[in-house]
Design a protein that fits this description.
This protein is α/β, with parallel strands linked by helices. It contains six helices and six strands, in the order βαβααβαββαβα. The radius of gyration is 15 Å and the shape is globular.
């Protein structure tokens, strides 16, 4: 992305999945490679050494607080930030935006469309309230949602939706897929 005009976007805020941390390799690769200020943050439960996530309202509140603090540090507003992350973290960012947190866009990595083996327990109720551009990047072998399952639900999102499938990858793509993920995210941000 070096040399590309990203003036509409002030920064990229990223967070982690339920069982991981902000040091997850894809999040680190994004911070190292995207030509924008990037902040990776950990939810309180991880910082406190707890294994299981807090309930969604508390996590969404933390997304909002982190976005507001990061935007203030950049002399921007949250409407100039792209928000996202892996799995649960990206889902919480999408829910925060659906609840009214202004953002320039969403980057959802390995979005957990449903729990593995439970395609009836969809996590899409808030999709109709998302009105910003959204990038989904995921493995085409992810048990949390197949390309076909995603195709059936992404039309509910009012904002422009871009999907990038990583071939032969599951819910936690291998480090070799990081360059492809970074390229997809960079292209998405430049287009905003």
């Amino acid at each position: 992305m070096a040399g590309q005009d990203t003036s509409r976007v002030a920064g990229l805020l990223l967070t982690h999945g339920a069982g991981g941390g902000a040091d997850q390799h894809t999040l680190v690769a994004l911070e190292d490679s995207i030509d924008l200020p990037v902040r990776r943050f950990e939810f309180t439960y991880r910082r406190e050494g707890r294994r299981f996530p807090d309930r969604a309202p508390k996590l969404i509140s933390q997304v909002r607080a982190e976005a507001e603090a990061f935007a203030a540090e950049l002399g921007a507003t949250t409407a100039q930030l792209v928000l996202g992350g892996r799995s649960m973290g990206g889902r919480m960012c999408s829910m925060a935006v659906a609840e009214g947190l202004p953002a320039a866009g969403l980057v959802l990595l390995s979005y957990p469309l449903h729990p593995p083996g439970k395609p009836d327990k969809l996590r899409v109720d808030h999709f109709g309230s998302i009105d910003v551009p959204v990038l989904f990047v995921g493995g085409d072998r992810d048990p949390f949602g197949t390309p076909e399952e995603f195709a059936a639900h992404l039309g509910a999102i009012a904002g422009d939706v871009t999907v990038h499938w990583l071939e032969r990858q599951n819910h936690t793509p291998k480090p070799k897929a990081d360059a492809e993920t970074v390229a997809a995210v960079a292209k998405f941000i430049v287009a905003l």
